[in-house]
Specification:
Keywords: Membrane, Transmembrane, Transmembrane helix. Helix content is 31%, strand content 34%. Strand 11 and strand 12 form a beta hairpin. With 292 residues, it is an alpha+beta fold.
Length: 292
């Protein structure tokens, strides 16, 4: 009967009847819906309180001791890993050969010779060095070494009497980390600054001319160098027979110079000559200014 009556209602009346039924349903079930919402909220609060209580109890009562040991273990492990990392990244110590004394060509004095090597490819260093004997000690000199370099250390006329138990000491080593980001191709960079050394000769001399060494240096690089020196090592087979240092005021780009030095005194039989430029290519002070 109701459906039949509804079929005769106007659209406005149908809409009002639908709205009326919906409002009546809301008024009838509203108290129950409010009670259900309050119950769900209360249950959520209770669960939250129980969870917080359990976490607090577990943290400070049940698992406190184990957590403390775990935190301490992580701290110790972290320090150990940090130490291992620091040691792996730190520069390895310089290697030193045994020091030997040599005739200086003057019977009253003796030269001293040793070799220092740098095992690090990304570190270079400045340092002080000196030589000691049983009852003698030289003054301290400044030295340097480039990455992965082996460099002779020599002191001419270092001892005034024939020394015994000669040793070399390196102190005040100041390491510098090589910046591979600023200079990714160090080998190529260094090759652009190398000095070409040719015609290294040793002359035994004669009745008029004393023995001597000579060589030619040519600076084919685009850089000039201020007061470069060259250490000449004379070899007698596998043994160092003598050393001599030769320097020049400057070596401009494109310069080619003939350098020589005389040896006054007895010279052993020499089989090989090696010439080492003593130029710190990583030191800006080693270069001539552009204005030259």
């Amino acid at each position: 009967m109701t459906n039949e009556n509804n079929s005769f209602l106007k659209p406005e009346e149908k809409e009002f009847q639908t709205y009326y039924q919906r409002e009546m349903w809301w008024l009838k079930y509203r108290p129950w819906l409010i009670k259900i919402a309050i119950g769900l909220f209360a249950a959520f609060d209770v669960c939250l309180i129980l969870f917080a209580a359990w976490v607090f109890l577990d943290t400070y009562a049940i698992s406190y001791g184990q957590e403390k040991l775990s935190v301490a273990g992580m701290a110790v492990l972290g320090q150990s890993e940090l130490r291992d990392f620091s040691q792996s990244e730190a520069a390895r110590p310089l290697n030193l050969s045994e020091a030997v004394f040599l005739s200086s060509g003057d019977d009253q004095f003796f030269d001293v010779y040793a070799v220092v090597s740098n095992p690090n490819s990304d570190w270079y260093a400045d340092f002080d060095y000196s030589f000691k004997a049983k009852d003698q000690e030289t003054e301290t000199f400044s030295g340097f070494i480039l990455p992965s370099e082996e460099r002779p250390l020599a002191l001419l006329k270092g001892f005034s009497a024939r020394p015994t138990n000669v040793s070399v000491s390196v102190t005040n080593v100041e390491w510098h980390r090589f910046n591979n980001h600023k200079l990714p191709d160090y080998e190529g960079w260094l090759a652009d600054r190398q000095i070409e050394i040719t015609e290294a000769l040793f002359s035994h001399g004669d009745e008029v001319t004393p023995p001597g060494v000579s060589f030619t240096v040519q600076n084919k690089s685009a850089y000039g160098f201020y007061h470069p020196s060259f250490l000449v090592v004379l070899w007698r087979g596998s043994t160092v027979g003598g050393v001599v240092r030769i320097s020049t005021v400057e070596l401009k780009s494109g310069d080619k110079k003939y350098l020589s030095a005389r040896w006054f005194g007895t010279v052993p039989a020499i089989s090989k000559i090696e010439v080492y430029p003593e130029i710190n290519f990583l030191d800006p002070a080693a270069y001539l200014s552009i204005s030259y």
